[in-house]
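Minutes, project check-in

Agenda point 3 was the complex the collaborators sent over. CS summarized: two entities, 394 residues total, and the question is how they sit relative to each other. Sequences were read into the notes so everyone works from the same version.
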Amino acid sequence: MGRPIVAECLDQIFLKARTHTKWQDRPVADDLLRRIIDLTVLGPTSANQSPARFVFVKSPEAKLRLIPLLSEGNRAKTLAAPVCAIIGYDMKFYDHLPRLFPHENAKAWFEGKGASVLETTALRNGTLQGAYFIIAARALGLDTGPMSGFDQAGVDLEFFGGTPVKSNFLCNLGYGDPAALRPRLPRFVFDEISAIV
Amino acid sequence: MGRPIVAECLDQIFLKARTHTKWQDRPVADDLLRRIIDLTVLGPTSANQSPARFVFVKSPEAKLRLIPLLSEGNRAKTLAAPVCAIIGYDMKFYDHLPRLFPHENAKAWFEGKGASVLETTALRNGTLQGAYFIIAARALGLDTGPMSGFDQAGVDLEFFGGTPVKSNFLCNLGYGDPAALRPRLPRFVFDEISAIV
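CS then shared the predicted structure for the full assembly.
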């Protein structure tokens, strides 16, 4: 630590990385999906809660179950993407804390708490992991296309039925077509959204 | 894109990066804080909402305002850290969408929506940006110490009073003392939390 990573790496994970909607006809190996998760789980969560859960929708059969649950603008690009990951969070994440955070009784901090506290906690920490997932995929050479527009209750039922997992967002994975990119949308600059006090 | 970043970079942002609680007596320049934000804002959010807001608590005076609002276990490490960032999210993020997402009337998708939809949307996208922030800081050579244990209403009043910004989580920044690290806590493996369908 102590020094920035080399420019090519900063380019790949932030500066030149873009959200893709058009995909090359190039498959994504299952091994690469495993490596994304191996990196993702290392990122920090509060009390090591690690609530995120992942379903990689890759087969034509699974794609057919997912596509009708997407908002119309998300269907064609998801059908064309080699993989669409469903990023969810486990509302009973605390059941695993005796193993994940063994030095304190962290399960007792959450068990029996109201749905709104649990929902906020699982959403916050599951979303941190969702962002680690995006960066990990980019770091491994993939392009990403995260999406919010879908029928959450429908996806929960179809892909997480009978479990305490709720869907959070979706993320297409593959090798994007750079020729299809438009200019990056505007971003805030430091002084608009930040202060040093 | 198409290839993984070099091993040293993967180490720095994921494999060897750790949450720190002990800090070297080495300051963090304001320019480095600016560079973290310049990278953070590039990460994707739904409809480019970009709801995250940042206060870098750096001066002794500002630290004294923050410390009493932290849970007791977070006080000493935050006092010792060169900087503590408050990561918040703007509940009126949609006011900026005509500029950030100019090709559609995205403001109308959110304005007047119920507090729970807005809260979930701002929390989800603000937290994605919070994770980009952690990775950006690591990529620039800093160590991080994210924390959830604090009085959110108190921090909102003290640092975001009179604005629609709510605090999400805190993150100490600096150069950690590697000698103070304990072994990494356990993580899930792929098959426990993931499936390819």
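Noted in discussion: Residues 13 and 139 of chain B are 6 Å apart (CA to CA).
Follow-up: revisit at the next meeting once the mutant set is ready.
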